[in-house]
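ARCHIVE CARD
Drawer: 12
Card no.: 0347
Subject: one protein chain, sequence and derived structure
Cross-reference: see card 0346
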Amino acid sequence: MKKLILIGGPKDSGKIAVSKVLSQKLNQTIVLNDDKNPEMTLENTQTLLNTFIKDPSIEHIIFCGLLDKQTIIDKLLSELDLNGVKIVPVSLLPSVQKLTNDFQRDVSSNSNEPDKLKHTIEHLLKYQPLRTIKYDNSQMSPAETAAEIMTQI
């Protein structure tokens, strides 16, 4: 059975790092990353995902993005040919303290603006009501988080 792994989470939650580890551990895997506004790119994402679903050489499809609203996840899935596909919806939710520490480290290296921290923390709260498997990856490496996700596959 083909697997579609949806990995959502706020900025800097580790989505890409976890996706890379998963892609190394799983056979016949493709990763699609879209951290833009999902509603703006929905149609293109659906087209790509359907192409990957139909490709017999691909067994695991990892899509990582913001995925911060259940309506977005539902719309994304609504136009996919999911016959014979297991969906594994995941949200990576590091603690506020971890986000703050990482953000402060990034600010000191000039790779982030201080006013974005408040927005990122507020964004974190949007994931609580989603129908996803939630992982607090604050104390977990990407490899440990990927191993936890693999238990769901």
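Annotation on reverse: The longest helix spans residues 38-54. The helical segments are 15-25, 38-54, 70-78, 96-108, 116-125, 142-150.
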